[in-house]
Amino acid sequence: LLIITDALKRASARSITAVIPYYGYARQDRKVKPRVPISAKLVADLITVAGVNRVISVDLHAGQIQGYFNIPVDNLFAAPVILNYIRKHFKNNLSIISPDAGGVERARAFAKRLNASLAIIDKRREEPNVAAAMHIIGDVKGKTAVILDDMIDTGGTLVQAAQVLTQNGAKHIYACCVHPVLSGNAIKRIEESTIESLVVTNTVPLSKKASECSKIKVVSVSEILGEAIKRVYYSRSVSSLFV
Q: How far is Cα 169 from Cα 104, in angstroms, rounded to an integer?
């Protein structure tokens, strides 16, 4: 990205817009212990210094990351396409599940639009990429539980959340996420879990193994990104896309 940006800049491009559906350094957005980098800020500086004039991304891990850039950032949301899928395929007695406290706002917004109940899983992270789901705040007994998260990495949090939901009497368990990183043994964990299907977007290309997993369903954010690119190119407002 940086090399291409430099080439475009030296070729006298009038403006350069970087479309980054998945901003991969977003989770390192603050110092959680001494002697660690703030990678989200560093990469933002690199992109800006290279010559990018505007960034278009999808569901940043934390909205505050927009402030790391000294250029306009359009943080689009994949919510419309995920909501449409949920409305078509998961209809009865829905309960939207936030896998941790940080995702409550997102889950609440989905629950409100779907007229569904809300539940929260109390999660305690012992070390990086290892999470322990403790208990559920809310009632999921006999309900169709839809776990909602912005990304899935190793799948540990997701699978443990599904186990807790099963133990608490959820009738059906589904999951939705925007960024399917799916590293390590994520696919194996998902296949062996009680999750009936996992709905993801195409912000991250799926590996061959992930593409062959029968539980994973992909919805596209291309229409949202395409509309944003068109509006930026023609200098039109993109405000209506932030829904």
A: 21
Strands laid side by side in the 130-137 sheet: 130-137, 117-127, 94-98, 144-152, 172-180, 197-201, 216-219
Q: Give the span between the Cα atoms of 181 and 64, in whole angstroms.
A: 21
Same domain, 200 and 156: yes
Tokens of 110: 């989905």
Same-domain check for residues 100 and 201: yes
Closest CA to 60 of 45, 43, 74: 74
For residues 210 and 177, the answer to whether their CB atoms sit within 8 Å is no
CATH of the domain at 192: 3.40.50.2020
Which residue type occupies 111? Answer: A
Active site residue ranges: 123
Q: What is the DSSP letter of 206?
A: P
pTM of the model: 0.89
Find the domain containing 34 and state its range: 2-77+223-241
* Tally of CB atoms within 10 A around 179: 23
Write the pLDDT tens digit of every residue in 18-73. Answer: 999 999 888 888 888 899 999 999 999 999 999 999 999 999 988 899 999 999 99
